[in-house]
Amino acid sequence: MPDMTDNSPGNSRTPVTVLGLGPMGQALAAAFLAAGHPTTVWNRTPGKAAGLTGAVVAASAAEAVAASPLVVVCVIDYDATDAILDSAADELTGRTVVNLTADTPERARRTAEWAAAHGIDYLDGAIMTPTVTIGGPDAVFLYSGPRSLYDDHSPTLAALGGTATHLGEDPGRAAAHDVALLGIFWTAMTGIMHAFALAKAENIAAADLAGFARGISDLLSPSLDALAANVDSGNHPGTFSNVTSAAASLEHIIHASERNGLDAAVLKAAHALARQAIEDGHGGDDYSRLADTLRTHATR
Ligand code: NDP
Question: What residue intervals traverse the membrane (predicted)?
């Protein structure tokens, strides 16, 4: 077990600064401490470092940055990130920022440009797993930006645990994966909440539905590779099911929801997309066609 209070000069591990001590920032700082890295932390609102035994708490972002060659940022969004980095721009010059805040690919690219203009090495990243995984084998991190920078710092970032993947030099690539993947998560979560609301309206306890719901959710994961192959090839053979059939199924859910007075907006959006594919002449295709339908009707 490493010495969690080892901020002494004899500690050869790379000093790390963590800016942002929300639940995720705290988990990241705790993992660095557990791996024996001298760790300096800062948070806009004081008092968030109470559980981080051994961390040095800085009075400002600039003071925190000055303590380490590697600065990890994890706050709510890039408006916050940019404001924090801007406040410490002078101290950041010549250091490396690893930004593990979630936001859009475009914001990631903009922050990378800002960093380059200020002589700051910049790696963007996304965390795909919850706080409890950080430091353990189940954590998943995605990175993008200069490969050499990733190689230089991956031994230190290894303290965060799990698996890390460098996705390419485009700094927006990690965030692009993040938004696409979180789209799956949040639409699925919303679908689950709609299912529970509809079940309750039909006098079915959510707990009674949950076992069957698990069966439905288990259907999704094994179908991902085949769906992706269809989307990449542009071929959507509707051999086992098709968009017309899916649209009819969606209608049943919408009718049942509205009969119970429930807002069916989420399902209506899915139904409208299926209807568009049918109007385009693709009713006989697999549901994977909808990815093409979205792109065909994209406004830019
Ligand atoms: P939040 O997303 O709620 O972020 C809270 C942090 O952002 C706090 O440090 C807060 O400071 C700071 N902050 C908010 N607004 C500002 C501002 N204007 N200026 C400076 N700091 C600001 O909590 P998390 O820690 O959970 O998430 C951090 C990032 O990690 C997010 O991008 C999130 O999407 C991502 N993430 C989180 C996961 C999780 O399980 N929690 C999982 C995967 C990714 P203050 O205390 O002063 O308000």
Answer: none
The secondary element (H helix, E strand) that includes residue 96 is strand 96-99
Domain coordinates in residue numbering, the chain: 16-169, 202-296
Cross-strand bridge partners of residue 98? 72, 123
User: Looking at residues 231-237, what average pLDDT do you find?
Assistant: 98
Distance, CA of 245 to CA of 224 (rounded, Å): 20
Distance between CA atoms of residues 18 and 71, nearest Å:
6
Q: Two tokens at 119?
A: 């002589």
Residue pLDDT, tens place only, 84-117: 999 999 999 999 999 999 999 999 999 999 999 9
Q: What is the pLDDT of residues 2-26, one digit of tens each?
A: 344 455 555 689 999 999 999 999 9
Q: What is the pTM of this model?
A: 0.93
Fold category of 202-296 in CATH: N-(1-d-carboxylethyl)-l-norvaline Dehydrogenase; domain 2 (1.10.1040)
Ligand 1 probe mutation, 18, 19, 21, 24, most atoms within 8 A of CB: 24
Q: Cα(175) to centroid of ligand 1, in Å?
A: 16
Positive/negative CA dihedral, 31, 26, 173, 136 = positive
Pairs from 43-47 (Cβ < 8 Å, separation ≥ 24) = 43/19, 44/20, 44/80, 44/84
DSSP structure class, residue 158: G
> Quick check: 56 pLDDT over 90?
yes
How many whole angstroms separate alpha carbon 198 and alpha carbon 201?
A: 5
Residue 254 Cβ inside 6 Å of ligand 1? The answer reads no
Split at pLDDT 50, 70, 90, the class of 78 is very high
**What is the CA(5)–ligand 1 centre distance, in A?**
25
The answer, yes or no, to whether any atom of ligand 1 lies below 6 A from the CB of 107, is: no
Where residue 300 falls among pLDDT bands split at 50, 70, 90? confident
